[in-house]
Amino acid sequence: MEIFCGIDWSEAAHDVAVVDETGRLLARRRIADDAAGFTALTELLAGYAGRPERVDVAIETGRGLLVAALRAAGHRVFAINPKAVDRYRDRHGVAGAKSDPGDARVLADILRTDRDRHRPLPADSDLAAAVGVLARAHQDAVWARVQDANRLRSLLREFFPAALTAFADLTTNTALAVLAAAPTPTAAARLSRANLTDLLRVAGRGTRPTEAARLAEIFTVDQLRQPPVVEAAMGQAVRAIVRTLTAANQSISDLEAALAAAFDQHPDGEILRSLPGLGPILAARVLSEFGDDPTRFPDPASRRAYAGTAPITRASGRSRVVLARHVRNKRLADACYLWAFAALNRSPGARAYYDTRRAAGDRHNAALRRLASKLLGQLHHCLTTSRPYDEALAWPQPDTTPAAA
């Protein structure tokens, strides 16, 4: 007998519902989020189905120890979007009632009635999973650094605008070294050219007398000032953010090295790196979000939908509107945007396609999204045929040979 299990996940405990093929509720349990809880769950499922392959499990997350343990035990696991669960809940009642045991039952019924509309978690390799962990950690660190840099920029604008004139990028070693030594306009004005030269050397810029002279000139220009006590307090705040950014730079550098090393071991790495615009970090992000299960994306359209480059159509009666897809893998969408932008300078075909779309009236983002969609189709072809990227094949030129008389 085939059975279906729904798990309403939470941090401390999980509500479980088990139904059979007819929809009859077989069991309800609440299990702890530990090894004992997982053992109780597997014993419960084995008592009704016997073998793990006879039990499909629905849960609202695709990550975590519970999911990993269920897959290792041989169960097929389906990660159901919470928004979809909310819609299915209305099939059981429109009053708006909600409970954790009830949601577990809804999850089980989703698989019982509409399993063919949902996909099980992909069977990615352990190496692809490791690349995914590192790629997401690296991306999170980069995003956090951007937020901290914006905080620092906002703070400097309030009392030390000369620093913004001096440094276009506040995350560089030079900017952080100077701001750590002189976080206020008063302290910066006291820096001599020799002091600045030493700071540039510490930041890895060597001895650059021209740069030191430029900074000295900027820091000594008259400017509006906050009261001394307020300026000193703001300087302490600058030092705190600078320490955070310095640590973030080191963390990002360490993660980049680990990510590149893991990606280089993957058998699809060479193919991914062959596509224009994909360096080791960006290629690793693309691999980590797509995974390496060859059955997950049967065609280019499924990849495009997952990445969000494929539009959606809303049609009703005489109305028909084509819109950008907003329900998507946002990490992958971000990687595809950067990939398409980088490809403009590395692929004549990509540049020509982008220029054509712009000439047709597309805005910059829309043209890049269309280009990313083309690149994803080329990536799918390369992965399914195990062939590296070929510019001539990817962007065939029209035949201009005169027809024979």
Helix-strand layout with pairing:
Blueprint: E1 3-8, E2 13-20, E3 25-32, H1 35-49, E4 55-59, H2 65-72, E5 76-79, H3 82-89, H4 100-114, H5 126-159, H6 161-166, H7 173-181, H8 185-189, H9 193-202, H10 209-219, H11 228-264, H12 269-274, H13 280-290, H14 300-307, E6 312-316, E7 319-323, H15 330-343, H16 348-359, H17 364-385, H18 391-394
Helix pairs in contact: 5-11, 5-13, 7-9, 7-11, 9-10, 11-13, 13-15, 14-17, 15-17, 16-17
Q: Based on helices, strands and strand pairing, what is the structural class?
A: alpha/beta
Q: What characterizes the major β-sheet?
A: 5 strands, mixed
Principal-axis shape: globular
Tell me the strand order in the biggest sheet.
Answer: 3-2-1-4-5
The amount of beta strand, in percent, is 5-15%
Stretches where pLDDT is under 50 for at least 5 consecutive residues are none
Task: Work out the count of structural domains.
Answer: 3
| Count of strand segments | 7
Strand/helix succession: EEEHEHEHHHHHHHHHHHHEEHHHH
In whole angstroms, the N-to-C terminal distance is: 71 Å
What's the overall average pLDDT, rounded? 90
- The gyration radius over C-alpha positions equals 28 Å
Q: With helices defined by DSSP (H or I, 4 residues minimum), what is the helix count?
A: 18
Helix content: 55-70%
Describe the structure in your own words.
By secondary structure, the protein is an alpha/beta fold. It has 3 domains: 3-117, 2-Layer Sandwich (Nucleotidyltransferase, domain 5); 130-261; 269-393, no CATH class. The chain is 58% helix and 10% strand. α7 (173-181) crosses α9 (193-202), α9 crosses α10 and α14 (300-307) crosses α17.
